[in-house]
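Crash report, auto-generated. Payload:
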Amino acid sequence: MYQSHFFDTDIARLKGMWGQRADLFKTELRIFNYGDLIQYYPFRYEDRTKFHDISGLTDNMEYAQIKGRLRYVEKIGEGHKARLTGQFSDSTGVIELVWFQGITWLEKNLRTNSEYVIYGKPSFFQGRAQMQHPEMELLNETNAVGGHFQPVYNTTEKLKKRYIDSKIIANFQRSLLEEAYSHIRETLPEDITQKFRLIPKRDAVYNIHHPRSEQWLHQAKRRLKFEELFYNQLRLIKQKLLRRTEYEGQVFKSATLLTDFYKNHLPFDLTNAQKKVIREIFEDMKTGRQMNRLLQGDVGSGKTIVAFICMLLAIDNGCQACIMAPTEILADQHYQGLKKFANSLGIRIEKLTGSVRKKARVSIHEGLLDGSLKILVGTHALLEDVVQFQNLGLCVIDEQHRFGVAQRAKLWEKNKFIHPHILVMTATPIPRTLAMTLYGDLDVSTIDEMPAGRKPIKTVHRYDSHRLNVFGFMKDEIKKGRQIYVVYPLIEESEKMDYKDLTDGYESITRAFPEQHVSIVHGKMKPVDKDFEMARFVKAETQIMVATTVIEVGVNVPNASVMVVESAEKFGLAQLHQLRGRVGRGAEQSYCILMTDVKLSKDSRTRLDTLVRTTNGFEIADVDLQLRGPGDLSGTQQSGVVDLLIADLAKDGEILRVARETAQAILDEDNELQLPKNTLIREQIASIQANQSNWSRIS
Ligand code: ADP
Ligand code: MG
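Recovered output after restart:
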């Protein structure tokens, strides 16, 4: 981020940073040089600008700073139960202070009848104000006036043991900033800083560590977030442009099979959303631009037929197509679905997975090479070198997040002459901000509409105490001829306990439904037994399926119309949404019943309320992002792309949008960044890249 050599200086050179400390900064925080340290931003700030009156404290204050007098302290209880309480007052009232730890030290060092500035979270106990483990500082000239924001930095246990706490880091930042200030270059061109009224880089860096005021802090954050997202988007869009100019795509013009399929074999009317994404995809495939497109659509939105129609266009033009899924079950499901369509047109389609026998394999390889095999469905097995196509024109990748970029690249190489078009499909809706950063180098098409006639799944939240009612409801549904899933959580750490929950649940259900046949499926069963039980449920020989989350993907039983999720609070939002997608596949009204204990955390309640309120996967993904932050969302862990220092994809959607538009406009005008006015940007990109390679060398 900083070009000057100054920022390459080893942190050991900083005043007060003697050897051992420097080593800890390096091993614990991965801070090696001045540049790393100055970019180690606080994660929050304590507002020390004002003092609160004790009489004005409320329960919902996060923190409060008070100026007053410590009246007395008193130790209560002995041993483990010992605590220290103190009485603290200002001219407006009294607050009780409580400590559970470090009592001996505190007793010795706290000075009763002295004036202090204290800081902590106020709470109320039986109407009386209280503060636990407040930070205490004797009143002095500096803290008496207040007026500053105290930055708070992340530390680690190891650092704390060596007395390197947030305050020490703040001091290091302060002394570094004094020296560094004049070395900080501007990194955004003036027309951008002016247009968006962004403060200079120097001021932003200074104020992010030591804000002069709330206003300055806000402006500093805005400036640094914009810069980070701007360069992130610039890089992604540049990659996309590069590919466009560098790689040609096959041009698909004729559409004989396609017309036949549309006219004679289309099993249903396409939704407008399906038509829209097909147009977007065809636009790529017909114009000679090599497609790299993400197709998003909620579970059941009809991505398979879209993929098939695109495959037809490739086949119509002398090419072959393949589709790769992350598991055998999913590959099989695609194969079954696509085979029906392909058979109606007399197109040869085969499935290739790890379990395909040698003889069948050889025939597949031959068919691929002589061009008679048009569509290949499979798993990772497709990537193997022996799998050679005569002329691969389109690759569809399902559930992108389980495949890495390297694997995508491997598919490119399956056609040596001209890269195939790539269509990445995902059923895990991703919030827009995340899609822009994760897949910013891909074009995105979205199916945002469900096929007509689907009845939205009714979702309710019930407490365990209402179990009898729920059983009654299940009985009614079974009487109508429906089938039911009952799902238990599976958390790896406590597998034994979960297994017990599952078997207990199974027993209580067999007791409550003596006339019904009940299946049970869980992760510890042998695959053959699992398949056997699944098959019984599919054939409706059993009415209830008690299972762990193994059924999450790949099960399609249209007659199953009720999904009961036990201990629903233990599931993530995305997971619950996927589970719910197992029902609602037939014509009947479907239900999802989320069972929980009465005691629930605030986040759990939000998750459950969200599911009850909406079936829209994008809305759900957004809430998930707000609750968990981008790092934990499914599908993003392995990607490592969302490596942002300061921008928050859950909150900074608007800044991201503007940053992307700005980056796009600049590249539209000057895609090589050759114009003089873009020199600064070009240099900054080079500097970021240089830094990244440094990083990989160090770590
Ligand atoms: P997903 O997007 O989850 O892969 P599928 O492609 O498996 O969804 O489609 C789900 C179901 O909806 C399938 O049974 C499919 O045949 C059906 N379907 C897809 N598109 C339509 C449509 N336009 N009208 C009616 N049914 C459709
Ligand atoms: Mg699908």
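Post-recovery validation: Residues 458-614 form a domain with the Rossmann fold fold (CATH 3.40.50.300).
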